[in-house]
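User: Please predict the structure of the protein below. I'd like the answer in structure-token form so I can feed it into my own downstream comparison script.

Assistant: Understood. Taking the following sequence of 401 residues as input:
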Amino acid sequence: MVERIRLSRVARTVSGTGFPPSAQGESSGDLPFLKVSDLALPENRNGIVTAANWITTATAAELGARIVPPGSTVFPKVGAALAVNARGFLTVHAVMDNNVMAVVPTDIDSRYLYHVLERVDMAMLDNGGALPFVSDSDVRALIIPFPSREDQRAMAQRLDAEAEALYLAERRHELELERHSSVIAEVVDEHLRECDVAVPGQLDHATYGQSVAFAQVFTSREEYGCPDYPMLTVTSDRGVAVRDMDAGGRAPSEDLSNYRVVRPDDLVVNKLWARFGAYGVSEVEGLISPAYWSLVIDRNFALPRYVHYMLRSKRYKVELGRLSKDMPPNGFDLAWAAFRKMRFPSVPIQRQEVAVRRLDEVHQELTLESRRLSLARERYEAALHMSVPASGIALAEAVGI
């Protein structure tokens, strides 16, 4: 039976300090000054080594900033970032702003502690106020599993190996995604040049070249309310997919009579998030929110897969973003009239087929890397669950320790 103890017995907490604008802006110095955004820097994914702002030891003393040692685990302690559960492992001495907290090991393996804290959902420590917030005392009062030092090191080594494999899989996926985007951009730019289309937006007719308006290519599918169909969603990374109803989010209405039907090869657009690439051609049948568009593609002008790649290219993403108007708090609304005026290059269907074959090959490689990344993430999560079961972590008052 593994002993369970209060975190305060084996670690201490350090909260950050205010970081006045007058002290910001230096890219070198003695100490990185961590903000929440620095946790997401690519350089820090395998251990925190840098920050956007640096200060000298003398400035740290003037600000009253406490220097945090290497081996500490850092995370957001306030605001919306708290729910993301981001973590960082310090490999250098650093200071932090007042939106960040550090847990400094005093009598526990530092890497084991990092992985334990990866299992903590900080939302359970939230004080319930209007602004999410976690206090030092609540973190110190956490109950964690405390195996022998030898077992801590063994668990940490196993988890570090899985974390490294996950990091490498993420990096390979990023490189493949960059190649994927580059090839799409190359094909789209070539076809726009051939058709003499300067920019695929609402420009003077002289710049349209050999192109047609979106109004000729896309028409709205006016089919509604098939309750037996699965609910669909559309995102910038996945395109159109069957919605995971267990993953949370807003539940669909009980009355589905006005939900739009999507057929395979329809273009689906989330007009409130089109600015961020939330659109794609569907491979499945289903229902979408009435706020989305389900569009039939005229195959006299375009192949569905060609449309999918074309609209997800940088050129079209930029133009759709430009045409989307800020509509707080819901997003950036893309007007139907503005969308219909955009231009589509008049590329012969045979040329589109050649382009699609090339782009499909690249997409298959990206899909393969995505699967490898999912497997690496599952392996890490499984190893973490086996080594540090969530049932071993609790609030002090819940277990009376």
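That's the full token string. The chain has two domains: 4-148+388-399, 196-346.
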